[in-house]
Amino acid sequence: MKLVWVLLCAVALLGAERGDWPVYGHDPGGQRFSPLTQIDRSNVSKLKVAWIFRTGDAYQPHGSKPTAFETTPLYIEGTLYVGTPLGKVHAVDPVSGHERWSYDPKINKDAGYGDYSHRGVAAWRAPSGALRIFLATIDARLIALDAATGKPCNEFGDNGVIDLQQGLRIGVKYPEDYEETSPPAVLGDTVIVGSAIADNGAVAMPSGEVRAFDVRTGKLKWTWDPLAELKGVGAANAWSVMAVDAARDLVFVPTGSASPDFYGGERLGDDLYANSVVALRGSTGKVVWHFQTVHHDLWDYDVATPPLLFDYHSEGKTIPAIAIGSKTGNLFLLNRETGQPIFGVEERPVPKSDVPGENASPTQPFPVKPAPLTPQKMTAEDAWGVDEADRKWCRDEISGLRTDGIFTPPSIRGSLLLPGNIGGQNWGGMAFDPQRNLLVLPDNHIATEVKLIPRADFDSTRESTGRRLDGGWEFARQRGTPYGMMRRFLLSPKKLPCTAPPWGRMLAIDVTTGEKKWDVPLGRLFVAAGEPGTPPDWGSIVLGGPIVTAGGLVFQAGTLDNALYAFDVETGKQLWRGELPTSARATPMTFKGPDGKQYVVISAGGHQPAGNQPLGDYVVAFSL
Questions:
Q1: Are 310 and 274 in contact (CB under 8 A)?
Q2: For the chain, is the Cβ count within 10 Å smaller at the N or the C terminus?
Q3: What is the DSSP string of 268-302?
Q4: What is d(CA 578, CA 557) in angstroms, rounded to the nearest whole number?
């Protein structure tokens, strides 16, 4: 059986080598490195739009979040496969951009989803050669499609469909609390899914099991519950993208916080296996090793970044390695067979909680190398503003908060979280250049303000403050605890961060030494629709990740401006900026089409509500 898994993985890798993009991260280990060289540093400035495909799926429900089109398409043997937030899949001609077929699961698009996003589909090639596309929908269905026709594979599950809201340790009370936003992982003849669980509603949110199903029949093979020992506590779910190592029969699972995020008095202790990367045996679901990036999370510091597998070379030795990014701005490099740190990890003292009933972890793990990738402490004296009035507002606001540096616990008074809950690094993740041993990744620099509200005061506080999701206060009840919570990005009256720019950067880390090679500002932060935006050296908040090519290029979007960027992988110099119909909250991909041309593709869906960029449904292809 292990040989079958290795052979199937080899088929995927061969597809990647010939110019396909068969997996979300290009290869099963998520390196996002393409061997294509037709577009390189000498000619990237000549890239032009080749075609634009529109899905028709940009949607804004009344009174709730709009769709977030975060898809990275797959390209397999002459066809692009594009998933959408409304659960549709489109098969697209890679040269003309015309649709070949589409599938619509007919979700309830007005259900009020907590995170109305979609990041892509997965694929499995049968020994017979038949290709199957796996789709995990926002309403938590796992669907198998025939890639040739777009029809459901009736022998899988119930006529091609599995209801993932069924069979959980803690069931789903509100359907919108349990979703699927990232593509499944495929390991041999097994398809593996996590879940996206709404933050901060209650202690007993749905449980965050990871489940594995037979790719042919949909029969459940195994389930793994990260909080099996914490009765009555939910989440710690794997909502980001998993990586697999077929040769070692391992799937690497990134997990989030136990519920709720900002008060842990009902889940005292480290909350194992929350906020971890867990190596599971692909055939059984048994834990092989785990590494916890945050003990007893009180900050929404999920492991949002997909794990990335690479080989570490030093002194004539090769170590199979894994890179784990974090919202904290810490980057951990581990041996992927054992979970042991390559450069060392230290448990360092962190601030104590002053909230009755809470017991914050006295220490947290910090890598010896690399150094933190983003600032982790800020006081009132560090407040930034575009003018003196903005600086004064930021300074005054920060002076009333707890500002004890990274891992300052939430408080009734109010606490400054830096990095904020958006990171640091988020789901956009990293790319790896194996030719230069470089990890390339975006990084955010923006603070969050969090306050705990005693239960008796929650409704009156919410009513007097108002509830907005456009940069103002966001409220959550955290049912089952003594405290609700309110949080917001720390923005000035002019809606600019109180942290000093750049607010978003691109970084390159040499994994051989653990040292940073370069960093540059990334993108532009738009203040209002129709305005030119902030200066380019101020950067932008980033929600999306990079890819690297053998042509010496890094392609990156994800910023609040409507652009796809290309950088020199060796220096970080910006070489090209491609205009998009709206901003692209996604990770690009590249492929070699049947016409012999290399294409670079990005999904542009807009940033709403934060970026004031219009919603979009565009898939944009560039070529020379």
A1: no
A2: N
A3: -S--TTTTEEEEEETTT--EEEEEESSSS--S---
A4: 10
What are the backbone dihedrals phi and psi of residue 459, each rounded to the nearest 5 degrees, phi first?
Answer: -65, -40
% pLDDT > 90, the chain: 90
Give residue 306's domain range: 2-623
52: part of which helix (H) or strand (E)? strand 48-54
- Closest alpha carbon to 118 in 135, 102, 103, 99: 135
User: Which candidate, 59, 55, 60, 58, places its Cα nearest to that of 73?
Assistant: 55
Please identify which residue in the block is written with the tokens 């050669």: 129
| Residue whose structure tokens are 């652009």 | 563
Q: Rounded to an integer, what distance in angstroms lies between the CA atom of residue 252 and that of residue 332? A: 14
DSSP sequence for 438-505: EEEEEEE---EEEEEEEGGGHHHHHHHH---SSSS-EEE--BTSSEEEEEEE-B-TTS-BSSPSPSEE
Cis peptide preceding 269, ω within 30 of 0? no
Q: What sign does the CA torsion over 459, 463, 467, 473 have?
A: negative
pLDDT score of 304 more than 60: yes
Q: Residue 513: how many CB atoms within 10 A of its CB? A: 13
Mean pLDDT, rounded, for 196-219: 97
CA 429, distance to chain mean position in Å, is 6
pLDDT bin (cut points 50, 70, 90) of residue 525 is confident
Tens digits of residue pLDDT in 541-594: 999 999 999 999 999 999 999 999 999 999 999 999 999 999 999 999 999 999
Residue 562 CA to residue 578 CA, distance in Å, equals 8
pLDDT at 146 over 50: yes
Q: What is the DSSP string of 85-118?
A: TTS-EEEE-TTT--EEEEE-----TTS--SS-EE
> Residue 135 above 90 pLDDT?
yes
Distance, in Å, from the CA atom of 184 to the CA atom of 230, rounded to the nearest integer, reads 26
Provide the annotated active-site residues: 300
Nearest to 606 by CA among 547, 554, 563, 565: 563
Size of the chain, expressed as the number of residues it contains: 624
pLDDT given at position 609: 65
Q: How many secondary structure helices (H) and strands (E) does the chain include?
A: 3, 42
Q: What is the mean pLDDT of residues 86-108?
A: 98
Contact 504, 444 (CB under 8 A): yes
Q: CATH number of the domain at 197, please.
A: 2.140.10.10
